[in-house]
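WARN retry 2 of 3 for item q-0093 after timeout on previous attempt; input resubmitted unchanged.
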Amino acid sequence: MDWGFLQKSWDKWASTNIGSSGGPLKAALLINYDPLRPSRLLSTIAEQKGIKMSPIELSQFVNFIKRNKMQTESFVIGHNQYMVTSIHENWFSARCLNSSKPTGEGAIVLQTSTFLLVALYEGSIGSASRAMVSVDQLVWLLNRRNL
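OK item q-0093 returned
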Protein backbone atom coordinates (compact mmCIF):
# COMPACT_ATOMS: atom_id res chain seq x y z
CA MET A 1 0.00 0.00 0.00
CA ASP A 2 1.47 3.33 -1.04
CA TRP A 3 0.17 5.48 1.84
CA GLY A 4 2.21 8.51 0.71
CA PHE A 5 0.57 8.47 -2.70
CA LEU A 6 -2.84 7.94 -1.11
CA GLN A 7 -2.47 10.87 1.28
CA LYS A 8 -1.13 13.21 -1.40
CA SER A 9 -3.90 12.25 -3.84
CA TRP A 10 -6.60 12.62 -1.16
CA ASP A 11 -5.32 16.01 0.01
CA LYS A 12 -5.17 17.42 -3.52
CA TRP A 13 -8.59 16.04 -4.44
CA ALA A 14 -10.29 16.99 -1.16
CA SER A 15 -9.00 20.57 -1.21
CA THR A 16 -10.87 21.34 -4.43
CA ASN A 17 -13.91 19.06 -4.11
CA ILE A 18 -15.04 19.01 -0.48
CA GLY A 19 -16.58 21.90 1.40
CA SER A 20 -14.96 24.59 -0.70
CA SER A 21 -17.06 27.34 -2.20
CA GLY A 22 -18.80 25.81 -5.16
CA GLY A 23 -17.29 22.37 -4.49
CA PRO A 24 -19.51 19.44 -5.42
CA LEU A 25 -19.27 17.61 -2.07
CA LYS A 26 -20.09 18.55 1.49
CA ALA A 27 -18.12 15.62 2.97
CA ALA A 28 -16.28 12.44 2.03
CA LEU A 29 -14.84 9.35 3.69
CA LEU A 30 -12.29 6.89 2.40
CA ILE A 31 -12.67 3.59 4.26
CA ASN A 32 -10.02 0.89 4.14
CA TYR A 33 -12.17 -2.08 3.08
CA ASP A 34 -11.32 -5.42 1.55
CA PRO A 35 -14.22 -7.90 1.47
CA LEU A 36 -11.79 -10.80 0.97
CA ARG A 37 -9.79 -10.28 4.15
CA PRO A 38 -10.61 -12.11 7.39
CA SER A 39 -13.59 -10.68 9.24
CA ARG A 40 -11.53 -10.20 12.42
CA LEU A 41 -9.64 -7.40 10.67
CA LEU A 42 -11.68 -4.25 11.12
CA SER A 43 -12.19 -1.62 8.48
CA THR A 44 -10.68 1.74 9.31
CA ILE A 45 -11.13 5.27 8.05
CA ALA A 46 -8.13 6.07 5.89
CA GLU A 47 -9.21 9.68 5.23
CA GLN A 48 -12.19 11.89 5.99
CA LYS A 49 -13.16 15.50 5.47
CA GLY A 50 -16.33 17.38 6.33
CA ILE A 51 -17.64 14.69 8.67
CA LYS A 52 -16.39 12.67 11.63
CA MET A 53 -17.62 9.09 11.64
CA SER A 54 -17.42 7.21 14.93
CA PRO A 55 -16.09 3.63 15.09
CA ILE A 56 -19.62 2.39 15.87
CA GLU A 57 -21.08 4.19 12.83
CA LEU A 58 -18.25 2.83 10.69
CA SER A 59 -18.92 -0.71 11.88
CA GLN A 60 -22.66 -0.39 11.19
CA PHE A 61 -22.03 1.04 7.72
CA VAL A 62 -19.54 -1.71 6.80
CA ASN A 63 -22.01 -4.33 8.05
CA PHE A 64 -24.66 -2.76 5.80
CA ILE A 65 -22.29 -3.18 2.83
CA LYS A 66 -21.44 -6.77 3.79
CA ARG A 67 -25.10 -7.80 4.19
CA ASN A 68 -25.70 -6.66 0.59
CA LYS A 69 -29.40 -6.02 1.16
CA MET A 70 -29.34 -2.55 -0.31
CA GLN A 71 -32.84 -2.71 -1.78
CA THR A 72 -34.48 -3.49 1.57
CA GLU A 73 -32.38 -1.71 4.21
CA SER A 74 -31.23 1.83 4.88
CA PHE A 75 -27.96 3.09 6.35
CA VAL A 76 -26.95 5.95 8.63
CA ILE A 77 -24.06 8.39 8.31
CA GLY A 78 -23.90 11.07 10.95
CA HIS A 79 -27.43 12.19 11.75
CA ASN A 80 -28.81 11.24 8.34
CA GLN A 81 -30.54 8.07 7.25
CA TYR A 82 -30.12 7.09 3.58
CA MET A 83 -32.08 4.83 1.25
CA VAL A 84 -30.37 3.35 -1.80
CA THR A 85 -31.93 4.61 -5.02
CA SER A 86 -29.64 3.20 -7.71
CA ILE A 87 -27.26 0.22 -7.73
CA HIS A 88 -24.48 -0.32 -10.26
CA GLU A 89 -21.56 -2.74 -10.62
CA ASN A 90 -19.17 -1.12 -8.14
CA TRP A 91 -21.14 1.84 -6.80
CA PHE A 92 -24.54 2.92 -5.59
CA SER A 93 -26.32 6.17 -4.88
CA ALA A 94 -28.69 7.00 -2.06
CA ARG A 95 -30.98 9.82 -0.94
CA CYS A 96 -31.32 11.15 2.57
CA LEU A 97 -34.65 10.32 4.18
CA ASN A 98 -34.51 12.96 6.92
CA SER A 99 -32.83 15.91 5.22
CA SER A 100 -33.57 19.40 6.44
CA LYS A 101 -32.34 20.88 3.14
CA PRO A 102 -35.08 21.98 0.71
CA THR A 103 -33.33 20.33 -2.25
CA GLY A 104 -32.37 17.24 -0.26
CA GLU A 105 -29.10 15.43 0.26
CA GLY A 106 -27.51 12.37 -1.25
CA ALA A 107 -24.63 9.94 -1.06
CA ILE A 108 -22.51 8.09 -3.58
CA VAL A 109 -20.67 4.99 -2.36
CA LEU A 110 -18.05 3.50 -4.65
CA GLN A 111 -15.89 0.43 -4.04
CA THR A 112 -12.34 0.10 -5.35
CA SER A 113 -10.12 -2.93 -4.82
CA THR A 114 -9.21 -1.82 -1.27
CA PHE A 115 -11.43 1.13 -0.35
CA LEU A 116 -14.99 2.36 -0.02
CA LEU A 117 -15.34 6.00 -1.02
CA VAL A 118 -18.39 7.67 0.52
CA ALA A 119 -19.21 11.08 -0.96
CA LEU A 120 -22.00 13.23 0.50
CA TYR A 121 -23.61 16.12 -1.37
CA GLU A 122 -26.48 18.59 -1.06
CA GLY A 123 -29.01 19.01 -3.82
CA SER A 124 -30.74 16.96 -6.47
CA ILE A 125 -29.94 15.72 -9.99
CA GLY A 126 -27.41 18.37 -11.03
CA SER A 127 -25.60 18.12 -7.70
CA ALA A 128 -25.53 14.34 -7.96
CA SER A 129 -23.95 14.57 -11.41
CA ARG A 130 -21.24 16.95 -10.18
CA ALA A 131 -20.63 14.69 -7.16
CA MET A 132 -20.20 11.65 -9.42
CA VAL A 133 -17.67 13.49 -11.60
CA SER A 134 -15.76 14.38 -8.46
CA VAL A 135 -15.83 10.77 -7.21
CA ASP A 136 -14.63 9.53 -10.61
CA GLN A 137 -11.62 11.86 -10.44
CA LEU A 138 -10.36 10.37 -7.17
CA VAL A 139 -11.13 6.80 -8.19
CA TRP A 140 -9.19 7.29 -11.43
CA LEU A 141 -6.15 8.35 -9.37
CA LEU A 142 -6.52 5.38 -6.98
CA ASN A 143 -6.98 2.88 -9.80
CA ARG A 144 -3.71 4.01 -11.36
CA ARG A 145 -2.01 2.35 -8.35
CA ASN A 146 -4.54 -0.49 -7.95
CA LEU A 147 -5.77 0.98 -4.65
